[in-house]
Amino acid sequence: xxxxxxxxxxxxxxxxxxxxxxxxxxxxxxxxxxxxxxxxxxxxxxxxxxxxxxxxxxxxxxxxxxxxxxxxxxxxxxxxxxxxxxxxxxxxxxxxxxxxxxxxxxxxxxxxxxxxxxxxxxxxxxxxxxxxxxxxxxxxxxxxxxxxxxxxxxxxxxxxxxxxxxxxxxxxxxxxxxxxxxxxxxxxxxxxxxxxxxxxxxxxxxxxxxxxxxxxxxxxxxxxxxxxxxxxxxxxxxxxxxxxxxxxxxxxxxxxxxxxxxxxxxxxxxxxxxxxxxxxxxxxxxxxxxxxxxxxxxxxxxxxxxxxxxxxxxxxxxxxxxxxxxxxxxxxxxxxxxxxxxxxxxxxxxxxxxxxxxxxxxxxxxxxxxxxxxxxxxxxxxxxxxxxxxxxxxxxxxxxxxxxxxxx
Length: 408
Ligand SMILES: C[S@@+](CC[C@H](N)C(=O)[O-])C[C@H]1O[C@@H](n2cnc3c(N)ncnc32)[C@H](O)[C@@H]1O
Fold this sequence. Notes:
The protein is of the alpha+beta class and about 400 residues long. The protein is about 30% helix and about 25% strand. Among the domains are: about 5-25 and about 385-405, no CATH class; about 45-175, Vaccinia Virus protein VP39 (Rossmann fold, 3-Layer(aba) Sandwich). Mean pLDDT is about 90; it is low at about 375-380.
């Protein structure tokens, strides 16, 4: 072999690094599906980690807490094992914090952390359900983060409605307000054709099925969607003012106008959180948020839509039979510019025994029960990178790699 036939290692390496960097970037942007977990007692280290390290979420909480808790008595609902918000209250100069936690393991870990940090004269931990326990004195501020991506989905209405009893007459709820947005969406083709979960996602889903005691069409959230996947204006699915009396059953009319000639697959819902009047977080654009947008795969099979088509619908929230977690229903019409009217109805419940009820869930759950389809692309990152490189390296470089293999 002459020297000109030998692989050019420098060139190889340069190309390889460039493509690898692009590949990693693109794969991290790939749209992923995950089960919603916050409305079930699944809290573990991984879930707390995602919240404790959710920078933007924590920034809006800290800023709002700084505005109101100095020298005040605070009650926190659901402090979690990392006592994130209680620590923020200490840092902001709160007089004392009664921190309530329902999960025994999280409570024990939280107590250890309080002792380790020397906060036991500031943070008084109470084990139990916030709707049932008592606190020794009335508080000035009630801090909580029991919000889902559909804000009410983790039971905030029933819990915060009850928590009013912890507050002095002019006491403040923090956060102050949450809006859940809704828009029509066109999903990436690979999600539509073969929806799949990661192994981790499937593990959580299996634990939720065990907890509820049967499989059902668990609400799914979707990561890495971009604004260009939305094909209508944005409307309000739900608007909760935590400083007003909270209802648990309500409905909201929505009106969406399609703004792209496209395919209509469903609706995307996401949270806009007001921890105070001036501290606002819209989670749609934060790819690292612990709140991922929720997918309602309503139109399976998809419907072709055109600019100007409209969706008029009623979004209904009703408390499920457990008295805490809501069920949701959207009933409405797609009204085409041609005058054609297509009626639809979609239900997303907390735990009703409805399984594989539409094509999306039939694709997600394979024929023989609750098996998950993995195969639209290898979910393992190393494998995915290998496929990405194979598809994207120039032939000359692949040939050089092959040559290299025969030499080594
Ligand atoms: C979303 S996590 C928030 C944890 C922490 N406050 C934070 O912001 O990082 C909600 C926490 O509330 C707890 N929780 C949920 N419902 C509760 C209830 N009814 N009473 C007390 N704690 C509750 C959960 O166990 C969980 O630890």
